[in-house]
Amino acid sequence: MFVSQYALLDKTIWCGNKLTGERWYCRPTVYKPMPSWLFHNNGDGTFTDVSKESGIAQSPGKAMGVVAADINNDGWMDLFVGNDTDPNFLWVNRGKGRFEEIGAFAGVGYNAFGLARSGMGVDAADYDHDGRIDLFVSVVDREMFALYHNDGNEIFTDVAPALGIASLTFMLSGMAVKFFDYDNDGNPDLIFNNGHPEPNVANIVPGVTYEEPMMLLRNTGQGFQDVSKQSGPVFSKPIAGRGLAVGDFDNDGSVDVLAAVGNGAPVLLRNNAGRQNHWLGVRLIGRKSNIDAVGAKVTYRSGDFQRDGYKFGGGSYLSAHDPRLVLGLGQRTKIDWLEVKWPQPSGITERFTDLPIDRYITIVEGEGKWK
Asked: Reduced to 3 states, what is the DSSP secondary structure of residue 192?
């Protein structure tokens, strides 16, 4: 269990307009960063703090978001941590309980100018289907969100400027982000829950507001297209966005969204777009591997169409997601086969055929059948 820490808060530090006496939120840079924790599950209902032995405690930061994903395809789950005004961390799992922090060397620690961003929401996905997991971090206004393309060999390149994502999000503060296939075409799309942390920001920074609209970007296979305006009036309503979780609450195969709002009721978005295409929902239950099958890779094929689905841990910001995978098929009406590569310490691969579509199934590790 990874537990992020933020900063050692000092209430004696005063930030604001000294002439008027108006107080503002302090920039995180005035506070001392804290090391995060890693707890080892002993399997008997207890945990052991292994923060020091693992290396996690060696690097303090102001962690806001974390996602667990295998970024180098070695079978071990790594950790990408979005830090607020500190360099982002990429903890690579070297096995035997040890992690190495390579954020700066990997190209995900700083922006192109060598500056740390206000990392908040983070997530992971293979957005371009090249077999390598890419990373995303959302930040505050004028810092530009980052989409880190996995180039292999533990090296990443920020492609958000080239794909137009940086310009689209330039004046937004993305508290939470999530990859999910909203239209079930087999490509992971992006959704942002936005809102500035400072309620009085409009009086401080011209052109920036406390409440901001959510944003939905469709993955066309060639890039990302802003489809917010045609996706419903909710995307035109500014909110003080905070956390964001995805899950199919009505079990119709269209993955829905729950957006948390600062000092307000959450907003539940029912997804109608996914019903236009076919899908298969999969619940994985590990036996030798962890029971939630975090780290599993699901590959499915329909004719010349092949995609991979991944079970990640964490993602977004202050949120937990539906553990089931929804595999989009577009207009295809048949799945030829589906393979599950179970995570360590199992590592086995099972193949399934004669699968249904447009419904949920359960696959238990080692049983060799779906139900």
From this structure: strand
